[in-house]
Structures are given as structure tokens and as C-alpha cells.
Write a structure and sequence with these properties.
The chain has about 180 residues and is α+β, with helices and mostly antiparallel strands. It is built from eight helices and two strands; from the N terminus they run ααααββαααα. Strands 1-2 form a two-stranded antiparallel ribbon. Helix 1 runs parallel beside helix 4 and helix 4 packs across helix 5.
Length: about 180
């Protein structure tokens, strides 16, 4: 038994695969590609799920774009040179002067490359204290540990107050004026 189809017929055609591959090479995301080929993003997602050739074309485009960027990032990190030509005019004649353009290594590109290739060594890390709230810490302590912690806190407060007493000079407050 054949299923009965309802709704509009699909606008999907195999030729769209090449268009999507090229859009992926440009770095567009799914929403932008759906807009470029004039379909809803849900339809785009549906096509990815239903059409193997569509999904593969999209993946090929993204992989090629990522590989090209990685290649350029690699050369930028190491520094590179290429042949170039300076075009000038002298006495009404065009003069072409070939030369080699040098680009020094780029530290930011090198760090970007290394942080992606070896994140355990090169990724910038932020230390996050996950010790929890004071209530949580106290609830995890035994009564003896809470008592010891309270005594230690009281001693720290006494020391801090003693330090402040030594550094703050008290000025005598003026005596109130009386009418004589």
C-alpha cells in the first residue's frame, strides 16, 4: 500500500547539493544557507536527514573550508613568503619589478593553532573554585569540624582586629562646647 502524500511537493533537486557545498565553502551556517536557497531552516534540516547526497555535499563543503582555513592559519603561524610584482610607471613606460614578499610568524595564529591541536598544553585555562557555598561546606562537616572551624575563624578575626588597632590612629574627639 502506498502512502498518501499531502502538502506541497518538495522543491528539493539533486542540483541543490552543489549549491549547498559552495555555500558551505563560504562559511555560511544552516540558517544562512536555507535563506540563500529560499527555504525554511526546518526544511533544510529535513533535507539533511532525508537526502544522503545533500548531507554529504554539505559535509564536503565544510571540511574543505575548514581545511583551507587550517592551511592558511598554519602558514600564518610559521611565517611565509611568496613572489610578488611591483608595477610602476617611468617615462610613460610600465615597469614591473619582481620581488619576494615576506610575512613574519604571527604569535596569535601560532597560539590558536596549538590550542586546538594540543589543548591540554596550550589552552588558556581559568581556575574556577567549585568548593560550594558556605552552607554546603558547613553541612558536609562533622560537629567537631564545625567547632574547630569556628574557633579558627574567631582567631583570624582577633588577629585582624589587632592589626587594625595598630594601624588606625585615634584622634581625640573634640569636647562639646558649653556656654559659660
Amino acid at each position: 500500500m502506498e502512502s498518501i502524500r499531502t502538502g506541497r511537493p518538495t522543491v528539493y533537486r539533486p542540483e541543490i547539493c552543489e549549491i549547498v557545498r559552495r555555500l558551505a565553502l563560504l562559511g555560511l551556517n544552516d540558517v544562512q544557507m536555507a535563506d540563500a536557497i529560499n527555504i525554511d531552516v526546518h526544511t533544510f534540516s529535513d533535507w539533511k536527514a532525508r537526502h544522503r547526497e545533500f548531507r554529504q555535499a554539505l559535509a564536503r563543503g565544510r571540511v574543505q573550508a575548514d581545511a583551507k582555513v587550517a592551511d592558511r592559519l598554519y602558514f600564518r603561524a610559521l611565517g611565509y613568503k611568496h613572489k610578488a610584482q611591483k608595477i610602476m610607471q617611468y617615462g610613460g613606460k610600465v615597469i614591473r619589478a619582481p620581488y619576494v614578499e615576506h610575512y613574519p610568524p604571527d604569535t596569535n595564529a601560532a597560539l590558536a593553532w596549538l590550542s586546538r591541536r594540543q589543548p591540554e598544553l596550550w589552552k588558556e585555562r581559568q581556575q574556577v573554585d567549585v568548593s560550594g557555598t558556605l552552607e554546603h561546606r558547613l553541612s558536609q562537616m562533622t560537629p567537631e569540624e564545625r567547632a574547630a572551624d569556628a574557633l579558627e575563624l574567631a582567631e583570624r578575626v582577633r588577629r585582624r582586629l589587632a592589626e587594625y588597632r595598630q594601624t588606625i590612629e585615634h584622634e581625640p574627639s573634640p569636647e562639646p562646647e558649653t556656654e559659660d
